[in-house]
Protein: Pyridoxamine 5'-phosphate oxidase family protein
Organism: Streptomyces achmelvichensis
Amino acid sequence: MHLDEVKAEAARLSPWAHIATIGADNKPHVVPVHPAWEGETLWFSTSAGSVKVRNIGANPAVAMHWQVDESGDGVLLSGTATVHTDIETKRRLWTGVFDYDLNDFIPGGPDSPDAAFVAVAPERIVVLKQFGMGGRDTWHRT
């Protein structure tokens, strides 16, 4: 399976995905995010002080799941996350990568100290059809 096929399937399902992180206390945390692809990197914006950011600092392994539609199709991703708060990255990503206005979520713009972006480098992605009963395709980072 090619990554472009994975991206198309995830986009078909939902613009939203849930990300699971694990904190220093070994407790899971799952929240929705609105990611965007840039090449082979999946990005999402967040607050620099969020639980996600703290958890990624403790353990960069993450899992993501695109919402299953009525057919039972879904996309599962596992990878490694890094947090980016440098002004150059924030300004670069602020326009042109996401399909929504980031100002709605971080009113101070890319120069805000609260603005952060998380890059997820996927290692394995599974596309399920009908909860897996209709088949599955897998993409691996080469």
Observations:
- The chain has one domain: 3-140.
- Residues 3-140 form a domain with the Pnp Oxidase; Chain A fold (CATH 2.30.110.10).
